[in-house]
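Here's my example:
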Amino acid sequence: MKKKVILRCLIGAPIGLSISFIITLIVSACIGRGEYYPVQPQLAELCGNELNAVVIQTICSLICGAAFAGASVIWKKEGWSLFKQTVLHCIIITVSFFPIAYCMYWMPHSFWGIAGYIFIFFIGYFFVWFGQYFAMKKNIRSLNGAVMSDNAKDQ
């Protein structure tokens, strides 16, 4: 199990970095001034300069990717209820992502900024969860249909 977590973390870290980079490209394109904005200005100011902020954001993006990928091992735990898996996965993702999002200024540092971030995070989390749930359910039905078809052929 530990080996799987480590392997997934190693795979997830560069994916997290890639996603972070793509987000900065999208944000820069949406601002529309023809400039690249790699980090939030508040983070650059806090870190002393933009380069230090980019280094810190890069490390945090690697950590986020690793945490998301490593936590996915929870879904492979047989014997655990779907509820237990979901709650534990959600806690791990929230505990690893929220402090990073706050420190990187990916959300406004105000009550409403944090509340809005939490709301959007959980809405997004459960949309993805439900999408995965229904995809797995469809896959299980398909596999059951194939097994039934094979059983019918054998008889």
User: Anything to note?
Assistant: The two ends are 40 Å apart (CA to CA).
